[in-house]
Design brief:
By secondary structure, this protein is an all-alpha fold. The chain is built from 14 helices and no strands. The protein is elongated, with a radius of gyration of 35 Å.
Length: 321
């Protein structure tokens, strides 16, 4: 009964104004607030599917982090896009016809001219409800479409996660381990000890000690040791390379172990292609998930049963003069 009494008040021309200022801001924010839980559900569903694309099977919470670029962009764009979609794209100004005159019987909720008064918005509520749904779905879908900047950011993060296995991280940590003083340890050390490319110069005795040792020629100091810990040069043989990687390879295995590299790179490429294809399929679920969450697409007057909020929204809209 309260709804009917509010409607009757709108029949007084002097008290009816278009939805402006606080009314526009309030209605726009109300719709955005309504769709918060819907978007959360859609993104959680996407994140759960992304987990299956990554061999380490991260948590849904971790996968949600990969979708952060889409959510951030949505928050930046959603208000302006929603306001424009409602005002003035469909509900605009006062109830005036194409000649700028107020049609007979207007303004009132049943005015034949679609205008921006609260009463008109309530009267055409199915259309308003559809505008809010379609705008939300369209923006989210655009941000999740291949070729968009946000999609590329998500793809880069997911591919990187899929191609980083625990085993590969262990190898990297050994290659780039850090020394006791915080500096990087030379990856070319072997198991016998630290590599020293320049041998120390022989000691020079103090004057008058009765002995004299000729210092080594300058060229000799620049010649690396030929021992096991010597750094193999560009033309070094297989024994030098084996010494180079002796700290990384399992005992009893030499360069033959690196033949697996021929298998790793193609495997990495295939995995990247599979992840990209899988992600494209996952992100294509935005609109179907929106329809599932709202119980329809909003194309008919009885659509969107879970995304209507009709009673609450009508009461809120009519609270503005």
């Amino acid at each position: 009964m309260r709804f009917l009494s509010l409607i009757s008040l709108l029949a007084v021309p002097a008290t009816v104004l278009a939805c402006e200022g606080d009314c526009i801001v309030g209605c726009t924010n109300a719709w955005l607030g309504n769709y918060t839980t819907v978007i959360d559900s859609v993104l959680n569903s996407l994140a759960a599917q992304i987990c299956d694309l990554i061999p380490s099977r991260p948590s849904v919470e971790t996968s949600l982090g990969y979708l952060k670029p889409i959510l951030s962009a949505y928050h930046k764009q959603s208000y302006d896009d929603m306001e424009t979609a409602i005002f003035p794209s469909y509900f605009h100004g006062k109830c005036l016809d194409e000649n700028g005159n107020t049609p007979a019987g207007c303004p009132n909720p049943d005015c034949p001219v679609v205008c921006g008064t609260p009463g008109s918005m309530v009267h055409f509520y199915p259309k308003l409800r559809y505008i809010a749904y379609n705008q939300t779905s369209h923006l989210l879908e655009a941000l999740a479409t291949p070729g968009s900047h946000t999609y590329q950011q998500v793809e880069d993060a997911v591919v990187a996660a899929a191609n980083t296995s625990p085993q590969r991280r262990r190898i990297y940590s050994r290659l780039f381990a850090r020394g006791p003083q915080g500096g990087p340890v030379n990856a070319m050390q072997n198991n016998a000890g630290s590599y020293s490319p320049v041998p120390p110069a022989p000691p020079v005795p103090a004057p008058g000690s009765g002995s004299h040792v000729s210092p080594a020629p300058a060229s000799a100091a620049a010649v690396p040791s030929t021992g096991e810990d010597a750094l193999p040069g560009p033309n070094a043989g297989s024994s030098g390379l084996t010494s180079l990687f002796s700290g990384l390879l399992p005992r009893g295995k030499g360069l033959a172990s690196f033949s697996s590299t021929k298998k790793v790179l193609p495997e990495l490429k295939r995995r990247t292609q599979d992840v990209k294809a899988g992600l494209k399929s996952v992100m294509a679920q935005v609109r179907p998930l929106m329809i599932e969450q709202c119980g329809g697409s909003g194309q008919d007057t009885n659509g969107l049963p879970q995304c209507s909020w009709e009673m609450q929204m009508k009461e809120y809209i009519l609270s503005f003069p």
